[in-house]
Amino acid sequence: MDKYTEKIRSIAGNLLKDGKVDKVIGYKQGSLPMAANPFAARTQEQAEELVFNSTCVMNLANYLTDTTEKIAVVAKGCDSRNIVNHIVENKIKRDQVYIIGVPCSGMVDKRKITSEFETDLTEFAENGDEITVKSLEKEKVIQKKDYLRDCCLTCIKPNPVIWDELAGEFVEEKKMENRFASVEKIENMNPDERYSYFTELTRTCIRCYGCRNACPLCYCPTCFVDESGPQWVGKGQNETDIQTFHFLRAFHCAGRCTDCGACEEACPMGIKVREFTKKLVKDSSELFDWETGLDLSKRPPLDTYSPEDPDDFIK
Amino acid sequence: MENPYLPYPVRIEDIEIATEDKSLKTFTFVFLNKEDEKKFSYKAGQFAELSIPGQGEIPIGIASSPTEKGFVKFTVFKTGVVTTFLHNMKVGDIMGIRGPLGNWYPWESLENKNILIVGGGFAFTTLRSSIIYMLDPENRSGFKDIHVVYGARSPGMLLYRDELVQWEKRDDINMHITVDSTDDPDWKYHTGFVPQISEEVAPKATEDTYAIVCGPPIMIKFTQPVLEKLGYKENQIIMSLENRMKCGIGMCGRCNIGKELVCKDGPVFTLDRLNRTPKEY
Amino acid sequence: MNLVKIDKNGFKQGIDRARKEYRLFGPAKGKEGHTIRHLDTDEYPDMTYNDSVLSAKSVLFPQTEKMLYTTFDESEPDHHIMKRAQADYSPQAVVGIKPFDAKALEILHLNFDNGDYRDPYFCDALEATTLVGIAVNSPGSCDFSTSTGTGPFDESALDILLVDTGDQYYAKIITDKGQSFAETCGFEEAADEKAATDEINALKEKAENAVTSEIQYENIAEKSIVELYNAPLWDDIAFSCINCGTCTFVCPTCWCFDIQDESKGNSCTRMRNWDTCMSPLFTLHASGHNPRGEKTSRVRQRFMHKLKYFLDKYDQGIMCVGCGRCVKQCPVNIDIREVCNKLNAYEEKA
């Protein structure tokens, strides 16, 4: 994906030179192998630091809310859908944002890679579809397609759905058997099994709110967990409080989630948050025939009322 | 003290509505255990954490003076979860007090000095403590001239009105009471903002004069230049800050301004010390 | 101080003996990676762990801790009067703590026993704890502990330092507490002092040389707080931060906490939870005023506290032991080493 880096730098450099935008939000190389640092370039020199590779996971739409600046932003397929959602929800105006669309062939799952090494990684070098990964004790050449993130494996829109300029050619959309297989696995459990499954899933949560803060949808000035008058959720390490936070947050994102996986990426404890957020993506798809962020003129289903809304749950 | 998080049990002895809009109430507490009152020996300028089980704690300046024995007084503004609950409590209810916390006005260095007190709104609580302390027959001779400028939005919002009137009648203290505005034709004191009135009536600074300033940030912001004009140097201006607190004992880390912890290194700071910290308050 | 040698099997047996007298904590693997936690009766500490996701501070300073309790039932004689919550302060030992994590506990102790007040929860737990450290033979890539005043073989905060030589451990028994622990375990076979010391020193030198990451802070110490606070570099540093709090929770030296009351029916508990200066709520006044309402001011607070305020206040180095957890776990890769070096290199333009 390094071919994108050149193009992004050139687009960004020109935009900044011509003063068309106040800043270009993209990624720069982080201080560790596999780390990409979200970065705002404000000058042409800074634009030369922008990169794009298979570790550029964080959803940059997260940095677009509550600003009056003119911003260019690097957007993969999922990110661009979140930008559409932001525009529909009035968090930013279409003419404020210059979208540098990047067709994405998937991002790697860092934990899948590090689990195969005993010591810290020292190098991560991409070469087309192959990646050379080195640590102090060994070196391994892996095929990128074997180490894709779970959300990338079920990605329905790798190409940007909205853009002002593209940084590369469109990639082929995946043909998938059943993108909700992981959700169905849980749906097929009985209530007790499901309860233990989710209790175990969220057991290690440390309430850092990384998932919430990395999510572009979570922009409430005061999140429900922080409310004190009245206080809805306790702040301690209590199973019920932890689960309340996670599940309520998932419901607040229902019909707006693009399954970008920033939540899972941000979690320091590696909690697979998408195990339950994806259920809401499935419900939106099946109940309302809805996929987030594909149409600037449509509002999310839980935002609007239509007489055709499904009501078979009213018995 | 053994466990600095453990509050002394107290009983609400008296509740007085302190302002006409009922947003402030003055609570008088009595310790359930007599020994606790001795352990709670405090100096004017300190604060305490009022602890309501099930609700939380609030850091409030002590309004009573150490010369008043048998009880402690706090004037509390209703603004959040705990203060609202406190306002709805009744005489006889049991709660807790942790303290005394923080440092106090530097009484040792104020000996034999002229004192100018500038207070605004409901920040006047620890200033009441200070005035009663200074006016106490045992202490009065230790200070020279005392001037007090105290203002509130309107006459009904002044705290401790009965005491203000009594002090005004005394000849060992100069009271300059002001309100921002009033339509009371019988209002016999000043009308105008505290910084303005201070400029008019406050004594010029001398080597031996110190100013104690306590009020909302906006009042402090406009009073500082006035004091500078009158010649007060940075180390002659004493301020009492507030910040969000939880533990009150310098451990939970949230009330810091630079490296100063407002609950432990403060809340009383001289202006020169404050000028060496970031303006993050 | 004495030097003892322990073969790997003997070590396991010793741990089994220790279980009878001490509650044991140590590194153990879970689905989230390794954490330092309470070990079950059949668990042994994983002494070869590379890194733990969270630090060892939760042994003395748990994420959620009950402090006080009372009852609202007015038929009880001491209703509404708060009392200290019961907890277990019987002897406990952390086996397999890395030297920088132990040093971090000393830093925490400075906060929780500050001369005027003593936090009984932390301090009582610390008094009951024996720290049995494991020297780090192969420091990780983000380990910069040698430039923060500690190091892979630093014994200053430990009761025992174990050194893994491959087929056995050497144990340097440093304190009385360490001595009691060693006796309970039966670790009494004296080592050949000269040979052992030589071998340990060789491993120490190798480990310290393997630490490739370093920071400098002499210039930070010399500048004034206000100058560094007003430096223009904070906006760029703070841009990518998502204010999550991961850095503060995985950090072994972060100590900020929140106190909350929770009640159910007639029973009421006052507890404390870890809190983070990264949260917008952290400094929010009831009036609505928030001195650190802007993200940049919060990011600045975190780094200024670690690298400057603590340095000035205690004159014992910076509030960082170089464990590298925040560097690895930050979702947007904000690197404290880069920030420190930027601050150190900062010159105010005239």
Strand and helix layout:
The complex is a heterotrimer of chains A (315), B (281) and C (350).
Chain A: H1 2-17, E1 23-29, E2 36-41, H2 44-47, E3 50-51, E4 71-75, H3 77-88, E5 97-101, H4 110-114, E6 121-127, E7 130-135, E8 139-143, H5 150-153, E9 165-166, H6 181-187, H7 191-201, H8 210-214, H9 239-252, H10 262-266, H11 274-288
Parallel strand pairs in A: 1-4, 4-5, 5-9
Antiparallel strand pairs in A: 1-2, 1-3, 6-7, 7-8
Chain B: E1 8-17, E2 24-31, H1 34-39, E3 47-52, E4 56-61, E5 72-77, H2 81-87, E6 94-101, H3 107-110, E7 114-120, H4 125-135, H5 137-140, E8 146-152, H6 161-169, E9 174-179, E10 190-191, H7 194-201, E11 209-214, H8 217-229, E12 237-240, E13 256-257, E14 260-261, E15 268-270, H9 271-274
Parallel strand pairs in B: 7-8, 7-11, 8-9, 9-10, 11-12
Antiparallel strand pairs in B: 1-2, 1-6, 2-5, 3-4, 3-6, 12-15, 13-14
Helix pairs in contact in B: 7-8
Chain C: E1 2-7, H1 8-21, E2 23-30, E3 33-38, E4 64-71, E5 83-84, E6 92-97, H2 99-112, H3 120-127, E7 129-134, E8 160-164, E9 168-173, H4 176-185, H5 193-210, H6 218-222, H7 225-229, H8 234-238, H9 246-250, E10 257-264, E11 267-274, H10 295-314, H11 325-329, H12 336-345
Parallel strand pairs in C: 2-6, 6-7, 7-8
Antiparallel strand pairs in C: 1-9, 2-3, 4-5, 4-11, 8-9, 10-11
Helix pairs in contact in C: 1-4
Concise overview:
With 315 residues, chain A is of the alpha/beta class.
Question: Can you give a write-up of this model?
Answer:
The complex is a heterotrimer of chains A (315), B (281) and C (350). In chain A, 31% of the residues lie in helices and 14% in strands. Chain A is built from 11 helices and 9 strands. The mean pLDDT of chain A is 93. With 315 residues, chain A is an alpha/beta fold. In chain B, helix 7 (194-201) packs parallel to helix 8 (217-229). Chain B is globular and about 50 Å long. Helix content of chain B is 23%, strand content 30%. In chain B, the strands form 3 sheets. Chain B has a 7-stranded mixed sheet with strand order 10-9-8-7-11-12-15, sandwiched between helices. Chain B has a 6-stranded antiparallel sheet with strand order 4-3-6-1-2-5. In chain B, strands 13-14 form a two-stranded antiparallel ribbon. By secondary structure, chain C is α/β, with parallel strands linked by helices. Chain C contains 12 helices and 11 strands. Chain C has helices spanning 8-21, 99-112, 120-127, 176-185, 193-210, 218-222, 225-229, 234-238, 246-250, 295-314, 325-329, 336-345; strands at residues 2-7, 23-30, 33-38, 64-71, 83-84, 92-97, 129-134, 160-164, 168-173, 257-264, 267-274. In chain C, strands 1-9-8-7-6-2-3 form a 7-stranded mixed sheet, with helices on both faces. In chain C, strands 5-4-11-10 form a 4-stranded antiparallel sheet, with no helix packed on it.
